[in-house]
Q: What sequence folds into this?
């Protein structure tokens, strides 16, 4: 209670008798505006856009999930997206190159919503304002208005952290997703090779492999489902594969897509291309694992020096140092 009374008195001294009402009301409005984009925007499933869910495990039509009613849900989503567009429009850059770069980054991070770019820029602005206010309130409560330097530093630092935090989150999510796709791609190619050699087409093998790797590599399984749905919708296979490579953002996937498109154009064996490329992908994955293993001793060197050498030196020469100090003290006395 003493902290609350002190806080109220500080607000009244700084902003007048109605200072607590103004500050707390403005902060509450800021929180509502910051949380609004998360409530208005929901991830749009690219498979649901075609009006049906993907085939289940193994491509069996009987294992398809039932269609979910989405009339009212889509209506609410469109209304929320419209409000979000109006709210985020002042903060969205007008440069097509910047918007395209942000959209590609969000796609590679797994955000495929039509309003993902606007949400991203709005989150950066709202994060900067929110963290700036939090930094200001922290210094205001702890030091008051006496130290204006700390008020400015913490407010500016909070705004910087809030502005960078969404970009950091998306970058980390993109890196994790790319690593997951890269690690699961050799196994997926092996299963695709088995399906193709068993007589299934490439489209059927994609559906089957997506069902098999759904638990181990969900991001890659989702990409395979998107490829299958877009091909069934009538989209050109080469365009679909190139878009898949762009969404994945992995060099190995881009190279495989190029090989697969060339095999389809020149009429060569798809199974042979899968076999050769799957072997190369396994070798690359093994090399990456060996590279990480070889880096471990170097990374452990710093920890060993910091946490092993000082205690060892204390154990070895500590008693001698104590004896020397006692001897010098005795001689001085």
A:
């Amino acid at each position: 209670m003493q902290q609350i009374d002190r806080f109220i008195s500080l607000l009244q001294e700084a902003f007048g008798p109605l200072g607590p009402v103004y500050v707390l009301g403005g902060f509450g409005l800021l929180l509502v505006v910051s949380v609004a984009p998360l409530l208005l925007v929901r991830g749009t499933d690219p498979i649901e856009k075609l009006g049906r869910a993907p085939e289940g495990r193994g491509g069996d039509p009987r294992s398809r999930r039932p269609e979910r009613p989405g009339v009212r849900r889509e209506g609410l989503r469109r209304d929320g997206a419209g409000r979000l567009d109006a709210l985020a429009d002042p903060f969205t850059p007008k440069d097509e190159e910047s918007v395209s770069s942000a959209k590609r980054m969000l796609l590679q991070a797994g955000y495929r919503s039509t309003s993902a770019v606007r949400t991203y820029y709005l989150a950066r602005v709202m994060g900067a304002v929110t963290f700036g206010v939090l930094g200001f309130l922290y210094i205001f409560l702890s030091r008051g208005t006496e130290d204006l330097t700390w008020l400015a530093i913490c407010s500016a630092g909070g705004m910087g952290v809030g502005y960078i935090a969404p970009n950091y989150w998306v970058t980390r999510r993109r890196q994790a997703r790319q690593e997951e796709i890269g690690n699961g791609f050799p196994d997926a190619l092996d299963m695709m090779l088995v399906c193709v050699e068993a007589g299934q087409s490439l489209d059927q093998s994609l559906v089957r492999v997506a069902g098999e790797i759904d638990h181990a590599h969900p991001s890659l399984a989702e990409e395979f489902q998107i490829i299958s749905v877009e091909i069934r919708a009538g989209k050109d296979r080469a365009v679909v594969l190139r878009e898949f490579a762009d969404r994945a953002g992995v060099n190995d996937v881009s190279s495989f897509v190029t090989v697969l498109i060339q095999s389809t154009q020149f009429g060569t064996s798809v199974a042979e291309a899968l076999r050769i490329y799957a072997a190369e992908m396994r070798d690359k994955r093994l090399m990456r694992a060996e590279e990480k293993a070889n880096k471990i001793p170097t990374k452990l060197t710093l920890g060993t020096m910091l946490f092993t050498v000082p205690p060892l030196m204390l154990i070895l020469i500590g008693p001698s140092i104590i004896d020397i100090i006692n001897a010098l003290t005795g001689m001085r006395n």
Q: What stands out?
A: The two ends are 57 Å apart (CA to CA). Confidence is low (pLDDT under 50) at residues 38-78.
